[in-house]
């Protein structure tokens, strides 16, 4: 409807102008020196309008031609920015997926644009660290352009990560010390500081830092297991067989920390070394009671044999809950042997041998039958032992 009304309006105006021009006999006289030019008023009006339009568009063309270099430059800059964005995106995707060739290609494309941003340098540095190209990462972070921008905290943390990867924990601690209090609480900063303290064997500080990291959720589960195992192994080594210091470490430990296999192994071994076998037994039995797996059984084996009288009831209960575990059946046999329960020990070892015949079990059974004065069976197991030893001597 609007288009129709507009068309009618144009027709009306055109008719009105035509009628006006048709009945207009006026003339315009132009004098140029001795010359006189007579034109109709209609022609003069049309000439003026056309002249105005021509001058107007001429001025616009001159103005546009003056802006052309700037617009062309902006166009080229826009294309570079677009290429940089595409390269950064491809580099980040390759970094996440671990596609090293794609990451190198994308980051090379980013450098070719000549307008690398903070993001470009950080992606390139992180990609190099992830690929263990530490020299390349250091070179990127030491570039003049990489020092500019608002990413000083990220830059410091990346440099600390490189120092830690180079086994330079002192340098990592020095870099992290330059951060303000708020930045030092960032998860990655806490993570790097923890492993730097571990690298420096500053075990008490490392334990405090570990607890900060756990409280702020700055560690993955795998990193937690690795860190707490290393810390308690270091604390036991630092105690150097001092029972009082070991008990202090044990009393200061949190229940969640004593759920770590490496920590429990280190503590039990340290307690056994300094003559605190009872404390080691209680520690491991408590852990085994609360765990669904028997991953602590190798450490408990030595303790249970040493504390056989007190360990026997727990071993029997544990065997009742896990009647098919061969390691546990053999442990029960060793404990029974220590308590001179020859019949029980023999039945346990024979049950294991029936499912997993080995030379060391044949040796145990030979010894037990000899102790029980059953020499015929002892000779039988000696023959089986010799057969195992003969088979082990055969070339593969």
Automatic annotation (TrEMBL):
Keyword entries, A-Z: Cell inner membrane, Cell membrane, Membrane, Porphyrin biosynthesis, Transmembrane, Transmembrane helix
Pathway named in the protein's UniProt entry: Porphyrin-containing compound metabolism; protoheme biosynthesis
Pfam families: HemY_N (PF07219)
Membrane topology: Multi-pass membrane protein
All residue ranges annotated as the HemY N-terminal domain in the record: 27-127
The keyword Transmembrane is assigned to this record: yes
Location of this chain's protein in the cell: Cell inner membrane
Transmembrane residue ranges: 41-62
Record flagged with keyword Oxidoreductase: no
Annotated InterPro entries: Heme_biosyn_assoc_TPR_pro, HemY_N, TPR-like_helical_dom_sf
NCBIfam families in alphabetical order: TPR_hemY_coli
Functional note: Involved in a late step of protoheme IX synthesis.
Protein name according to UniProt: HemY N-terminal domain-containing protein
């Amino acid at each position: 409807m609007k288009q129709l009304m507009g068309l009618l309006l144009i027709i009306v105006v055109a008719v009105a102008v035509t009628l006006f021009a048709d009945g207009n006999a006026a003339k315009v006289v132009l004098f140029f020196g001795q010359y006189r030019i007579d034109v109709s008023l209609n022609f003069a009006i049309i000439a003026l309008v056309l002249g105005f339009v021509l001058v107007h568009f001429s001025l616009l063309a001159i103005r546009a031609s003056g802006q052309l270099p700037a617009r062309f430059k902006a166009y080229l800059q826009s294309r570079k920015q677009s290429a940089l964005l595409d390269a950064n995106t491809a580099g980040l995707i390759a970094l996440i997926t671990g596609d090293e060739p794609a990451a190198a290609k994308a980051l090379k494309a980013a450098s070719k644009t000549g307008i690398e941003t903070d993001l470009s340098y950080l992606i390139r540095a992180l990609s190099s660290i992830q690929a263990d190209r530490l020299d390349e990462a250091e070179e990127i972070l030491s570039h003049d352009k990489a020092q500019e921008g608002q990413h000083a905290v990220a830059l410091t943390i990346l440099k600390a990560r490189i120092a830690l990867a180079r086994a330079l924990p002192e340098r990592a601690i020095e870099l992290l010390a330059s951060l303000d209090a708020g930045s030092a609480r960032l998860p990655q900063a806490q993570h790097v500081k923890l492993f730097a303290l571990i690298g420096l064997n500053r075990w008490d500080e490392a334990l405090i830092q570990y607890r900060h990291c756990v409280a702020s959720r700055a560690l993955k589960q795998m990193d937690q297991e690795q860190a707490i195992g290393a810390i308690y192994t270091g604390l036991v080594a630092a105690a150097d067989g001092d029972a009082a210091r070991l008990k202090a470490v044990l009393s200061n430990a949190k229940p969640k920390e004593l759920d770590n296999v490496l920590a429990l192994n280190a503590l039990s071994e340290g307690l056994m070394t300094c003559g605190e076998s009872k404390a080691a037994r209680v520690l491991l039995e408590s852990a085994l009671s609360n765990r669904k797996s028997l991953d602590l059984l190798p450490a408990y084996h030595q303790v249970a044999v040493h504390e056989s009288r007190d360990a026997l009831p727990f071993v029997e209960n544990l065997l009742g809950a896990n009647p098919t575990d061969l390691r546990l059946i053999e442990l029960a046999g060793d404990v029974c042997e220590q308590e001179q329960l020859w019949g029980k020990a023999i039945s346990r070892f024979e049950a294991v041998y029936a499912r997993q015949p080995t030379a060391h079990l044949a040796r145990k059974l030979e010894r037990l039958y000899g102790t029980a004065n059953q020499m015929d069976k002892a000779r039988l197991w000696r023959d089986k032992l010799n057969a195992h030893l003969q088979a082990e001597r055969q070339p593969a």
